[in-house]
């Protein structure tokens, strides 16, 4: 059939077949370059590390060994491992503490002439002298009449009492001494962060623990599963999720003077893109989340689009987590290596591995489209163009 200009008219169905065949011969990338896509194809992602512009990017297939190595690289020492129990902090007196000293002596020889009857009971002839409160000086000493300078810093009340009794042994008649800490200025713990009230909590012989200090501060202001507790002791800094500490009593460690407890609200999230149930940023708990949980929270893979062999995790990884970390040529200023983890969900064993593979904050989880899905989109586009022409031709033939 010819048109009015003398050209032969090609049937629309034949045009459709010719276009589809030509583009099919050109490969999926031929039509993927101009039609709408959610991201790179599986082939493009796998080829990315070989590109000279992407030098240093590592492509790692997720296996059981890889999951265990990543898990080990992320493991941090627990509070129970990092902070072993020490002596009872509240019983040790230090410079700056204020103490009160009382001395009892039996008659007839009264060393301290201004003595008065013991108001707290006892024998009528027993006398007690209570000296004014005094602060332990920077040298760690206090002064006691007729006993001289007494070493107080670094000692408990019982040791100071025994020292004073020994000094007064030949000067007072059967002396008995009581030392009482009236103001604890040195054995304190500082509690700050996302709590109701920041405070300095004095430590006592009760031996307060981490959660005691948190309760004294009024508790946290954010959900427990979103909180991390950081404990600073000297030069050592360690952090753990609060809900883990609550579940494991061993992590509720004893506090020591000078400890700083910081309650941190750290919003952790990963981003999911591609052929999944939803594309968005997903928040997760301070205790962490696994790859299997992450896929579940985004509604899994779209069975009409997803390539089960094209699940990828983009991350800046610690070199220690890589078997060939020394070969990495490209790192961030803080020493991280760009890594693409490839997960093959067509293998049932991968679902067990996914239960142990940990996600990190700022990870990108991407699922590429299956080649058949891209072809289907192309056929839909061609059909939308050729379909009306077919309909018009059919109408003319009626």
Task: Give an overview in words.
By secondary structure, this protein is α+β, with helices and mostly antiparallel strands. Helix content is 26%, strand content 26%. It is built from eleven helices and 18 strands. The strands form four sheets. The chain has a six-stranded mixed β-sheet with strand order 1-17-16-18-14-15. Strands 2, 3, 4, 5 and 8 form a five-stranded antiparallel β-sheet that branches. Strands 10-9-13-11-12 form a five-stranded mixed β-sheet. It is rod-shaped. The chain starts with 11 loop residues before the first helix and ends with a helix. Mean pLDDT is 81; it is low at 23-32.
In short:
Helices cover 26% and strands 26% of the residues.
List keywords for this structure.
398 residues; alpha+beta; six-stranded mixed β-sheet; five-stranded antiparallel β-sheet; 11 helices
Chart the SSEs and their pairings:
Elements: H1 12-25, H2 28-32, H3 42-47, E1 58-61, H4 64-74, H5 79-82, E2 98-105, E3 116-117, E4 127-130, E5 134-135, E6 141-144, E7 148-151, H6 157-168, E8 176-183, E9 188-193, E10 199-202, H7 210-216, E11 227-233, E12 236-241, H8 242-247, E13 260-265, E14 268-274, E15 280-284, H9 291-297, E16 306-317, E17 337-343, H10 349-354, E18 364-369, H11 371-397
Parallel strand pairs: 1-17, 9-13, 14-18
Antiparallel strand pairs: 2-4, 2-5, 2-8, 3-4, 6-7, 9-10, 11-12, 11-13, 14-15, 16-17, 16-18
Helix pairs in contact: 1-11
